[in-house]
TrEMBL record:
The gene is LOC111494334. One of its GO terms (cellular component) is membrane. This is Protein NUCLEAR FUSION DEFECTIVE 4-like isoform X2. The keyword Acetylation does not apply. It comes from Cucurbita maxima (Pumpkin). InterPro entries: MFS_trans_sf, NFD4_C, Nodulin-like. The keyword Transmembrane applies. The chain crosses the membrane at residues 124-145, 157-175, 187-205, 226-245, 257-276, 361-379, 391-413, 425-446, 452-471, 492-511, 541-559. Residues 348-563 form the NFD4 C-terminal domain. Keywords: Membrane, Transmembrane, Transmembrane helix. Residues 28-273 form the Nodulin-like domain. Pfam families: NFD4_C, Nodulin-like. It is a multi-pass membrane protein.
């Protein structure tokens, strides 16, 4: 009888909340698609080898001076932490338009220089390269922070997906250039200036109208994982399309058809989440409405009886309802754990001051410095490497090969998240395995100067570097806290300008000294001396192989130190090991 007098008004409102939550689901997917498009067209640093020789001839530079320009683009990434600070004080769309403006100015003036419209000193070109590199890092930060906020349960899957599309930028820009004028390398600079600006304007509204993040149930997380499977399949098809058709020679008209197909594939991910979310939403409304009409009274009584049973059981056992620990208790526990030498838990927030005091961070820094960064420097020198080996005509295809393999390396980095139900392995361990191809590739390049060796080596380095670039975002979030990743990851990638300078200077000095030591290895292209032969980069490849071995060793030590934290995380969070 008591049950009849209790007010049941609040109980039926639960389905309405679920309905509203389902209505907000498409919003986060649209934001994810906006991040994919931004990433796909803002990896403008990967096409530097395609126009570097033209830039070198226009300014009459030596190889060392050209390397400084490549370094300048990477030095811009050293200021990437400013984007994390800017996001704390400005809306994301403001930061995005600031990034687009920097890229438009940096690349646009360089294009005017190659067209002979303006005359700029070397120092000004250096600053323009720095500004362009800064814009890339700002775009990346916006996308990373957006995915971390919108997909807290599937953070790694979202990050790996969007970062992978950054690897196809060079292939897309090559298609666009071939579709307009295959013989004009300066078009890369014009497209680098205009396309990111246009994409930013298109993505303006999805970024501006992002719904607030809402906690997801276990069922919603599994549904999101299934959607990610569809998106990853689409991404693989896109990568195979670009690497297959971009490597085959085609006419201007053929390139236009291939470009239209690439854009169509990039539009497919925009439809999949919408169809999936709409289907689930309609199904939820229908099932909720039917159950509320037919079984409302049964559910109400069952709910009340469960509550009474819980209260009786609590009184008998004398136990209390478990509540989350107080914030101060969490903070004290965190401080105790941070005070220890080894990292004991994952996803604990680290300030910048705490970050630089950790040995794990510096092992991570060295692994990135000697692993991912050295692959990026290799791609910057790919134009001169192919020229010295007598494969100048293959430069565009090699850039596309590196870009496509980098794309697949970034996709492969999501493999641990799909296999975590069966294989509980630390992400730092996967990273160590991904760095193994680097020394193999450089040893192969040093041993042989054949076209096949160059292609295999470029592909291996692209795979390894792509995995590193993608997995590092998730690893930074796991080791040093998701909320601080916007700043902490930009602190990590300050190794890129440092490595770009040191490795680039090493390669450039060896290149120029080899070209000047013997007339048989030198050729003249205008006022510029060009090195020809295997000796031009032989010493560089040997040095890079040794450095990559150091990075592999550092990553292995990081894995050994962080493995207990990952094991403890899997044991205490068994639900996170079952995404499907």
């Amino acid at each position: 009888m008591k049950i009849k007098h209790r007010k049941p008004q609040n109980f039926p409102h639960l389905p309405v909340t679920k309905q509203r939550r389902m209505m907000n689901q498409p919003g986060k997917w649209v934001a994810l698609m906006a991040a994919i498009w931004i990433q796909a067209f803002t990896g403008t640093n990967f096409d530097f080898p395609s126009y570097s020789s033209n830039l070198k001839a226009a300014l009459g530079m030596s190889q060392v001076e050209l390397n400084y320009l490549a370094v300048a683009s990477d030095v811009g990434k050293a200021f990437g932490w400013c984007s994390g600070i800017a996001l704390l004080y400005f809306p994301s769309w403001v930061v995005m338009l600031m990034a687009a403006s920097m890229g438009f100015l940096g690349y646009g003036l360089q294009w005017l220089l190659l067209q002979g419209i303006v005359s700029l000193p070397y120092s000004m070109v250096y600053l323009l390269c720095l500004l362009a590199g800064c814009s890339i890092c700002w775009f990346n930060t916006i996308c990373y922070v957006s995915c971390i906020q919108k997909f807290p349960a599937n953070r790694a899957l979202a990050l790996s997906l969007i970062v992978s599309f950054n690897g196809v930028s060079a292939a897309l820009y090559t298609l666009m250039t071939n579709a307009v004028d295959p013989n004009d390398a300066s078009l890369y600079l014009l497209l680098n200036a205009l396309v990111p600006l246009i994409i930013s304007v298109v993505a303006f509204f999805p970024i501006l109208h992002q719904p607030p993040a809402q906690p997801s149930s276990a069922d919603a997380t599994r549904n999101d994982s299934l959607t990610f499977i569809c998106l990853y399949i689409t991404a693989v098809i896109t990568g195979l399309y670009l690497i297959t058709f971009n490597s085959t020679p085609s006419s201007k008209y053929g390139a236009q058809i291939l470009l239209a197909g690439a854009f169509a594939l990039l539009l497919v991910p925009l439809c999949l989440p919408g169809i999936w979310s709409t289907h689930k939403w309609l199904f939820r409304i229908a099932s909720t409405g039917l159950s509320s009409v037919l079984h409302f009274r049964f559910n109400l009584v069952n709910h009340e009886l469960q509550q009474e049973l819980i209260n009786v059981e609590s009184e008998r056992s004398g136990t209390k309802v478990i509540t989350p620990c107080d914030y101060k208790e969490k903070e004290s526990i965190s401080r105790k754990m941070m005070g220890k030498e080894n990292l004991t838990v994952l996803e604990e927030e680290h300030s910048a001051k705490m970050l630089v005091r950790r040995l794990d961070f510096w092992l991570y820094f060295v692994a990135y410095f000697c692993g991912g960064t050295i692959g990026l420097v290799y791609s910057n020198n790919l134009g001169q490497i192919s020229q010295s080996l007598g494969y100048s005509s293959l430069t565009s295809s090699l850039v596309t090969l590196y870009s496509s393999c980098s794309f697949f390396g970034r996709l492969i980095s999501a493999g641990p998240d799909f296999m975590r139900e069966k294989v509980h392995f630390a992400r730092t361990g996967w990273l160590a395995l991904a760095l193994v191809p680097n020394p193999i590739a450089f040893i192969l390049l040093a041993a042989s100067g054949s076209e096949i060796a160059l292609q295999i080596g470029t592909g291996l380095i692209g795979l390894s570097s792509g995995f590193m670039f993608s997995a590092s975002v998730s690893i930074t979030s796991e080791l040093f806290g998701p909320n601080s990743s916007g700043v902490n990851h930009n602190i990590l990638i300050t190794n890129i300008p440092l490595g770009s300078f040191l490795y680039g200077v090493l390669a450039a000095v060896s290149y120029d000294s080899t070209a000047g030591s013997s007339n048989q290895t030198a050729a003249t292209l205008g006022d510029v001396v060009v090195c020809i032969g295997r000796k031009c980069y032989l010493q560089t490849f040997i040095w890079w192989a040794c450095i990559s071995i150091v990075g592999l060793a550092s990553c292995f030590l990081l894995f050994r130190r962080t493995k207990p934290a990952y094991d403890r995380h899997y044991e205490s969070n068994p639900s996170k090991t079952q995404p499907f």
